[in-house]
Amino acid sequence: xxxxxxxTDPDPAPSTAGVPPxxxxxxxxxxxxxxxxxxxxxxxxPALDWRIRFxxxxxxxGFSFLLIKVGTGGYAPFQVTLGRLLSGTAVLAxxxxxxxxxxxxxxxxxGHLAVAAFFLNALPFSLFAYSxxxxxxxxxxxxxxxxxxxxxxxSLVALSEDRPTRRRVAGLGLGFLGVLTVLGAWQGFSGLDxxxxxxxxxxxxxxxxxxxxxxxxxxxxxxSTLALTGSQLFxxxxxxxxxxxxxxxxxxxxxxLPTLAVVALGALGTGLAVLLQxxxxxxxxxxxxxxxxxxxxxxxxxxxxAVLGEQLSWNTPVGALIVLAGAALTQSRARTPKxxxxx
Length: 343
Known about the structure:
Strand content: under 5%
Order of helices and strands: HHHHHHHHHHHH
Structural class: mainly alpha
């Protein structure tokens, strides 16, 4: 969830014009990474193999929906979002100091980052927190997996380089068939909380809107990905800090479990996850790094059932698999046939 150092639409496509592709959604979704100047590859090999870091990132983002559910058990949704952004911003601020990163210098860049922070952090984080007041964390995690589908649909209209193909249109149709399966459309959506589900789907839609905006406005900004992402999270924190007192009252106390959940959600799911994904993109490329997207709903579902005891009907996992298959199809590209060798 997102947030992250890649741009996917949430995309597996290779970066263009200095834009690293961003992650789906993540919990998402975390802070999807703004576009930046290409980063220099580190001369030293990371201490941990990339597969271990890939697995850690999958677990962190997969458990984010469980942490949101636990956090909303003790705090209002806006308070969960504020705590999450504060913790995530603190982690990235430390990383920026250690790496001696400079903040963006132009008012134009800060203005675009403020818009990105709204669509990639403040809005989706708040919507997911509100949605989990009435829907299980498993359903929220599966709704998050629709981000690639929304992204593909939007990019066909908003990004001229993404041309519709039969493969992508088929993936889109298959993915939304999966959504209908998850929601039990043939039963008339009985037993489904419409408002909570709609908020989770809107949160997933917000990510690709933000990614498209970032690709159009922040390419070639001259700042590093880490500096842009840290600045974006800071602006998202300010936005939520201004809104929270208007809609919530101060908490009566600080219950231990919800507090730990919110801190972990921000420090791990929004802060550390960005650093992990940023490193993966540098080492193995955006196409491999974005594959984490397809593990998130699986882990979110397993965590919700095993830890929170949430109920699971057959159509939920089946629909989730269909959604993931459709998302994978929209992100795939037909292989270019190799020219025949000259005789």
